[in-house]
Design goal:
The chain is of the alpha+beta class and about 675 residues long. It has 11 helices and 32 strands. The strands form 8 sheets. Strands 17-32-19-28-29-30-31-18 form an 8-stranded antiparallel beta sheet. A 5-stranded antiparallel beta sheet has the order 1-14-3-10-11, with no helix packed on it. The chain has a 4-stranded antiparallel beta sheet with strand order 23-24-20-27. The longest helix is centred in the last third of the chain and has 65 residues. The chain is elongated and about 150 Å long.
Length: about 675
């Protein structure tokens, strides 16, 4: 420790600093070995981290081909996208359709008179404005001194939110403005046409006047013809986005030309499926290249990579290769291995794709390719379908497993205690699961149900016409929850007594799925039920329509989730579960990269080792510092003693010399 403690051996003549430095250099060798061990551990850790990143990337790619829905992607084309475009969901079926667009849906739009408003703040008066639509909607807005301008009237109409939108346009110039109030129906079609705008209730200003006989835009429906033969189907819709004509297809009407026939072609999206497979292969080959690089040996230098000979990496590599090269249990031999669709391994373990063989398989047997990659079941009942599996779920083999459904799932519901046989005699407000719904006088049962169902996204309830017991047909309103299971409830109540003529029959006493009697005492209801049953001989857990096996007994079906849509109990349903290559790789990598997995544990052990080495290095640094301090102290004491001896020697020599002079 040169510096303040440094001594130069003035008495002894020793090169003290050099001597101590040599001693400390030798004493520091254990610390140097620890630092070398730390460097090597950090290098191995970096290698594992790199492999972990690539494993996670491959896991993501495998997830894109591990689910049956990934292979159900559909594509749709239109021969004239200027008139009609289309999109397809996975529920669409391949096919070709011929469509003509006779007309496009338009909202009704009318304008106020010209030449009367030169400012947005021109006064229109105070009082009331009444607006009526062809669908029966009628509403009134009140104008007072706080909103008696053209802008204030437009805002009041928009705030009412009753199916009419108000805007203001300038039909003049910037220097000579001519402002007009434009009213537009929010929904298209003649049913939503504005039939009356009464501004006679405004006083003290210039009230707008609307010429309904000469609209800016006529209300019209979208009219499409499906097919070209004598039996062609004509459909009329009050929207240009049509979702219910061709199952799984959404048509978007852009323009109309009744003279043109548009070809709509729906097919499996094999292009995106192929890209997903090729992307998986590319990512796998990247991983193989990196792992192979860890097992190379340089014969010239004798150098080896950081994970050379690591048994955990060797085991993981073996598992991945065997999963990809193996056969999928439970599938036909014609399509139970990657080689059957043109994907093979070369001598380095990387995958090679035969494009023509893969394309042929995708075109001729897409469902078979889907099962080769994904997890799924073959079920003897259409009411029992595959939902999900976990890393614990093992293939069932061709024998399959037996599923028993002892109780099907059920939705909660409440049925009004009194039938609705007359239109509403007065406005009525009902509360469905706490959400208020306004009903207007004159509505019949169908209109009431349509209004209730327009709020389904907020109430999670759908209304239907049933008999008094909540089933079959009749004039009783039944409220059913959209979801199955015991977790979901239904509650309904009205502000009108069910004893009055012309009501919904709900009554002014709360009726719930647990206590449905309500005001009349005759309301009926059902509580929601979860599905229950067994999978592979063991009791499963039900949640709504989902039946899941959670087993601690090593059951091969552990983690399997099934969707059970049956209305009655089912017995002896046989399901054959297969785990395709994509699903198997996904599960393998999920396990390997989990907190308790091989890769995570390898990194943990290295991090622990590095932490211990850092602690050992710190201890050695303390010991070496103490040792160096002791050495300097010892040499200092040596120099002090030598200095004293030299002084004594010098004194004695001086005394002897003095004696010699006297004699």
């Amino acid at each position: 420790m040169p510096g303040m403690m440094s001594i130069t051996g003035l008495s002894s003549g020793l090169k003290t600093d050099e001597i101590i430095a040599k001693i400390m250099e030798y004493a520091s060798r254990p610390k140097a070995r620890l630092q070398q061990q730390k460097s090597e551990a950090q290098t191995r850790l970096a290698a594992w981290q790199d492999i972990n990143t690539r494993l996670l990337a491959l896991k993501v790619k495998s997830e894109s081909i591990a689910d049956l829905t990934d292979f159900q992607a559909m594509t749709v084309s239109s021969s004239d996208s200027s008139l009609l475009t289309a999109t397809a969901s996975t529920s669409a079926s391949p096919g070709t359709y011929y469509v003509k667009v006779v007309s496009r849906a338009q909202c009704h739009q009318v304008s106020s008179q010209s030449g009367v408003y030169t400012s947005l703040n021109d006064v229109v008066g105070t009082g009331t404005v009444s607006i009526t639509l062809a669908n029966g909607t009628s509403f009134q807005v009140t104008i007072d001194s706080s909103n008696n301008t053209l802008t204030g009237l437009a805002n009041a109409i928009n705030k009412a939110d009753k199916g009419v939108k108000a805007t203001i346009v300038n039909a003049g110039t910037e220097s000579a403005p001519d402002y007009r109030l434009i009213l537009t129906s929010r929904e298209a079609g003649p049913e939503n046409e504005i039939t009356s705008v009464d501004t006679s209730g405004l006083e003290g200003g210039t009230a707008p006047v609307f010429d309904l006989d000469n609209p800016l835009q006529v209300a019209s429906s979208a009219v499409l013809e499906l097919g070209e033969g004598s039996g062609k189907i004509t459909v009329v819709k009050n929207t240009n986005t049509i979702t219910d004509l061709i199952p799984g297809i959404t048509l978007n009407v852009l323009s109309a030309d009744s003279s043109k026939t548009i070809k709509i072609e729906v097919s499996a999206d094999t292009t995106s499926i192929r890209k997903a497979i090729e992307s998986f292969v590319e990512q796998y080959n990247d991983l193989v290249k990196v792992i192979n690089g860890q097992f190379t040996y340089d014969v010239d230098t004798g150098d080896t990579p950081p994970l050379f000979g690591d048994f955990r990496l060797q085991s993981l590599q073996s598992d991945i290769i065997s999963t990809l090269a193996g056969k999928v249990s439970g599938l036909s031999s014609s399509l139970n291995a990657l080689a059957t669709i043109g994907i093979t391994q070369d001598t380095t373990g990387q995958l090679v794709v035969d494009s023509s063989t893969l394309d042929s398989a995708l075109q001729n047997n897409l469902p078979g390719v889907a099962r080769l990659f994904s997890a799924g079941i073959d079920s003897s009942s259409s009411f029992v379908t595959f939902l999900a599996s976990t890393t614990d779920t093992r293939p069932s083999g061709s024998a399959g497993w037996v599923v028993e459904v002892t109780q099907p799932a059920r939705r909660a519901q409440v049925t009004a205690g009194v039938a609705m046989t007359e239109p509403l005699s007065a406005d009525e407000t009902i509360y469905v699961n706490g959400r208020s719904i306004g009903l207007t006088a004159g509505m019949d049962i169908d209109s009431v149900i349509a209004t209730i169902n327009s709020y389904s996204s907020q109430t999670n309830v759908i209304a239907v016409k049933t008999g008094a017991n909540g089933s079959g047909e009749g004039n009783y309103i039944t409220f059913r929850h959209l979801q199955y299971g015991s977790a979901y409830k239904v509650s309904v109540v009205s502000n009108r007594s069910s004893s009055l003529v012309g009501t919904t029959g709900i009554g002014n006493v709360l009726a719930t799925s647990d206590e449905p009697a309500g005001e009349s005492g005759s309301g009926q209801g059902l509580t929601g039920l979860d599905v229950s049953g067994t999978i592979n001989g063991e009791a499963a857990t039900g949640k709504g329509q989902i039946l899941t096996l959670r087993s601690n007994s090593g059951n091969a079906a552990n983690g399997l989730s099934l969707l059970v849509t049956a209305k009655e109990p089912l017995s002896n349903v046989r399901v054959v579960f297969t785990k395709g290559v994509g699903a198997a790789i996904r599960d393998l990598l999920s396990a390997a990269t989990s907190v308790t997995g091989t890769v995570s544990q390898a990194q943990k052990s290295l991090n622990d080792a590095i932490a211990q080495i850092n602690e050992d290095i710190a201890n050695w640094e303390t010991r070496l510092s103490d040792q160096e301090a002791r050495l300097y102290e010892q040499f200092n004491r040596l120099e002090v003693q030598l200095s004293k001896l030299q002084q004594q020697g010098n004194y004695i020599s001086a005394q002897l010399a003095a004696l010699n002079k006297k004699t």
